[in-house]
Structures
1.
Amino acid sequence: MDTMNKLAKKMISGLLCLCYALGADGQTLTDGQIAVQNLAVSKQEDKLFVAMDLDISALKQGSNREVLFTPSLTLEDDSLSLPAVRIAGRNRYYHHLRNASDTERLYRNGERDLIEYRVTVPYEKWMGRARLSATETTCGCCDAPLTSTATPLSKLRLEKRVPTPFVPAYAYIRPKAEQKINRIEGSAYIDFPVNRTEIHPDYRRNPEELKKILSTIDAVKNDADSKIISISIKGYASPEGSYSNNIRLAKGRTETLKEYVRKQYAFPQSLFTTSFEPEDWEGLERFVASSQLKDKQGILDLIHSELAPDVKEQKIKTSYPTDYAYLLREVYPGLRHSDYAVQYEVRAYTDLAEIRRLLTNQPPKLSLNEMYLVAQEMEPGSDEYNATFATAVRMFPDDPVANLNAANTALRLGDLKGAETYLSKAGDAPEAIYARGIRAALLKNYTVAEPLLKEALQKGVMQAEDALQQIDRIKQEMAEDEECGRRGVKKDKKPTT
């Protein structure tokens, strides 16, 4: 019994599903005079079995007429005509007998009501997804075709479908051309004599600290493509001493540093902006908050208090003398600093070769528009193309256009997680909505994808129309495969031939 069950299971597993997509059972042909019933197609090993019953009880035709019933399999450029069935009137029937015609499937009209059609042919892979149709040709006495009609019977689902891939177009945005204003910032720790505002260039660490500022300016000034727009300096003093005196020191030292820098280059006064902070309490707060000081919280409470600066500093000194001594020695010197910034404009670039070179060597000089301009000359999806948009978003990490274009590149590469990160900063432009729809579609989340793509289409992103059509085709295939699973017929033996 077990052996028989195993054999039965093996035979059943060799017979794959046929999807009756067109409802072939009961299908009528020849103006309703021939009915196709009990259609079954199966595959086992290297053979394809086709079986159907032709009900011809309603077929009425003259003695000089005949119907040629020819099933066929077709799929794109492949096709195979199966053996035909000829149902002939009296005269045509005897004509074929007298002339030694192929009479294997020759039937005389009116002698029977049912024809059992059984065919076995060598199986080819394309047949597994083919369409089964039948052509009915009505002929007269001289074998001349009078009418010919092709009727689809069913779609075969004997081979697993290779899913249609979703291959979207990507909607990049060309950034607007704009003035390129860049900024270089830094901090210098200039040592001044106690309670004085004059600069001694050779005093303590001043040579190296002054060099930091001048080197920053030189890097821009000596670049033929750049023009300095402004130089800003902001001076800070530490909290020890009186607040009024610290105002004098911070203001005076800032002005002294500005004049020192200006005179090194003979810059006009109008190029400079200055400001000052008499006591850098914010800097002190940052250090204490990240420290392991014993009385950390008490010091922070005083820093955050509404006390006058001099009162606040004195209370820290008297309440937490040990920690204060440490702050005075190790931290306060760092609070005496001068922050500087050099703002400059970079000329526009139009030469693509020059832009390519700068992309590699000096990308901060380029605008988003210039990067996009050169990307249009690259092969979409190439390493160079992808690297360009990666550079763009690295140079402009918060720019919506840079993030959108980087998201498109990530989607091209199949990096759906990276695309998600970029899209979170891509804004709400129609192209960004479209890209979010594309990502959802690539994740096969069509419920999310379709509303986004429809919105993008309404807002003018025409690529969304093709994406929606692709999704429709994919969903149709999924529905057909699901229907196949529901309507597949199990058999425990091969059709007889």
2.
Amino acid sequence: MSQAESKNVILIGAGVLSTTFGSFLKEIQPDWNIKLFERLDGPGLESSYDTSNAGTGHAALCELNYTVEQPDGSIDVEKAKEINEQFEISKQFWSHLVKTNAIENPREFITPLPHISFVQGVKNVQFLKKRYEALKNLPMFSDIEYTEDRNKLAQWMPLMMEGRSPHLAIAASKIDKGTDVNFGELTRKLASNLETHDNAELFYRHEVVGFQQRADKKWEVEVRNLDTDNVETHVADYIFIGAGGAAIPLLQKTRIEESKNLGGFPISGAFLVCNKPEIVQQHDAKVYGKEPPGTPPMTVPHLDRRYVRGKESLLFGPFAAIGPKFLKHGSNLDLFRSLNRDNLLTMAAAGVKNLSLVKYSIQQMLMKKEDRMKELRRFVPDAKDEDWDLHIAGKRVQVIKDTQDHGRGFIQFGTEVVHSKDHTVVAMLGESPGASTSVSVALEIIEQNFPDYLEQWSGKLKEMIPSYGESLIEDTKLLNKVRKASADTLKLNEK
């Protein structure tokens, strides 16, 4: 491609999704011009920040919401296989960046850590055993272990077994190949990599305030410099909105057809945190439980060992709460400003349909520390109030939309990519497991919005992601090959 055909791309937001997509563009089309705008002082300061999320490398190893029990009693494992493959794809891309010295010191952002599923009560034990039976013969999960033996459980998670009643039925499954990921550190590394690119510019403290599409399909993007209050107009062939909770209001400002009948339900996350070394050392895993009946997937309780900037801690939660802000550093007017004539009925329908969720979120918001400690003691029976502090994490805005299957006002849990019909605007919406699957999201964007370039890009994509175009679900030999290569490069075989 000649320089005359070079395109201008604007990335909005400096989180893990924008910096991942930007890093892709740098590799596959280095002559394209990239401008990234972020309203805060640096990269990864919202949902991608070190402690704004639980840091789980989501690979469906322990998250029970990816293996749902069906009415006939069977366990649906298809979502688990999909999520696992997507995380393997992420690791391949990160490995490529490490091997090419685009980013350094992988152990600063990814650490090997066992992933454990833990359940209590006869019914949940039966479910976990069925899940184990459904997964153990699949190559992706072949190293899964299962036990109801309390001595074995005490080896796996000593902190959680100390002081536990011997009368309640309990069980756990474990896979050692899990990870803790500092997505904040990863984002900073990706942003630094992007800054080294001759055709990329990163602007912090710059807020996108408006869009106008021209007759030639290019976009004029109005950007305010928050230090000077000056507004400048930048022209782009393509816009990527990866602005976390702000993605929905920004998408609405584009006025594209796909932004209509779309809204967001903001949920804050909070965790109990323990920083005492003598306690932290007793728990070396991410342990996920089962969400309470009638609650959404993001309410799954889990107790995590975290590795952040050389410090180790324990994290328990999440505790959800509702509020009007779409961002942790947002405005109390965010929710109200997002309402318009196109989505008002959609939002109203969502409120009526999900009264239980609203009620649950309000209850969570009103919880006192003793209530949260009571939940923690289901995991750590001997937990003491003075050892744990409350930490407010990031915002997750659940997508609300109208669908053919679910009708008006459906809350879409998980991640969603919205594309304009002319492929000039892409927005990333939603929540977990977005960060873990960010590379697959970038690939989806490339495949759906740049079909004319795929042939010339395919060789480079294959170089970056050796499994590209093939199925890790179907090809066990390839799965084992790329998994070993990623583990070696990312130093996941070293504790």
3.
Amino acid sequence: MYGKTIGGTLGAPFECYRGVFDVGFYTQSASRPVPNDDVDLQLVWLRAVELEGRNINAHVLAEYWSTYVSASLAEYGTGKNNFRMGIRPPLSGHLRNRNRNSNGAWIRTEIWACLAAGHPEIAVRYALEDSMVDHSGEGVYSAVFVAAVQAAAFAENDIFKLIDIGLSYIPADCGVAKGVKTVLGCYENGMDWKAARKTLFQTVPGSFGMMNGYYPGQVPEEDIPAGEPGYDAPSNIGIVIIGLLYGGGDFGRSICTAVNCGEDTDCTAGTLGALLGIMLGAENIPEKWKNGCSDEIVTWCLRKDEALKAPRTVAEFADRILRQTPAVLTDYCDIAAANGYTIDIPEKTEEEFVPRFWNTFPYLLSRIPRATHDVFPICDVFVAYDEDFVSLRAGRKKTLSVRFVNKLLDPQYLTVKLLGVSEDFEVEDGAERCVGLEHRHGGRFTADLRFCFTPVSLKKAKYEFTMEIKSEGRMAKYYIPLVFLNGNCTEADE
């Protein structure tokens, strides 16, 4: 995390500017790190892990976000506005969110990488839950990519292998993958970093650097387009890779190269600084960089709340993460080791050492942004919305596709009810169903059903239903909130 604050401080003066710079060291005289939302959000996630444990998910993180994060700009604000309305992740990260493909998620992945050190297959699951709160699409893919690379870096120093590991978790045809592969191609073809930057911007155009335009003294580049507003993750992830490849393993040269590419400079240099800190170790970060930036944590967008108990230094932050790592890596962490706990990193592929029944990551990723995911002791429940998401229109049928995954070795019968459906709606085949779930050994341990209902008339702006789930013979009941809006939150409105 020390590398994170150093890189963020170096890049801060050039954030939101476009141009090719010649930065070789801090340009500000302050010895403290600059306030940085990249770090702020991770302090909130740390507290969530400390209080809620390894089973935190997007819904829990959204609640912590609402409680402790004051910033309401861009995707942060859209995500908060959505879940204030009761719109849950991943829909909260997508609906009416023009910045869903931007940089707000991949810049806060270090905590997941550190908690799952050496285990990218675990880090990506947390990064996915985190990113879907206020992003979708490239915003999610970028967070998954960075989390995988950083977690793997605890056990692997070959940068090309690290990049391959990151790419293995995201769609091969997504913008982030395209940007990373473009930079790799430029490097392999002997192009310098400036030419790689230009090719990257031409391949996956972004707009982050055009918020403030070209930096004073910079000549506008006619051959570099301005991309779609909010589509910034692919190009900025590409900048991180430029710094990683062309920096040649040198900490200072790497983060300076990232800053010299412009755009979201505090984020690109901060994330790269964190990655290099993992690979090199904090003790191997050159003293001149440490001397110019203390290990103090200076917050920007956090509400001052004693319950948050935010760490005040990088050292304290790291220590508290280390305390939680055994809980996250329960199956791979020996807490009884003589000289402190050790982490087991099997020499196997993801598919080999993650039980396939429990590996929901690929399915979750494929269902974003339409499907919510709820985890209960007896089953996992996925609720997928149709093409209109949460929007209702009179006379137009609405379909919810629900998948149940049995978590028990026992077969179950589930009674599933839609509660709160008023006379304004016609429900096909009734609002109550019975679902049979077989056990995992040789059985079909998933089951699917659909609820189809049609608004006859819409008299309210917002409708709130509840899905009740009960396993016969068990006392507990489980509930999933469902929110719909009166025709004012469609894709067409975006």
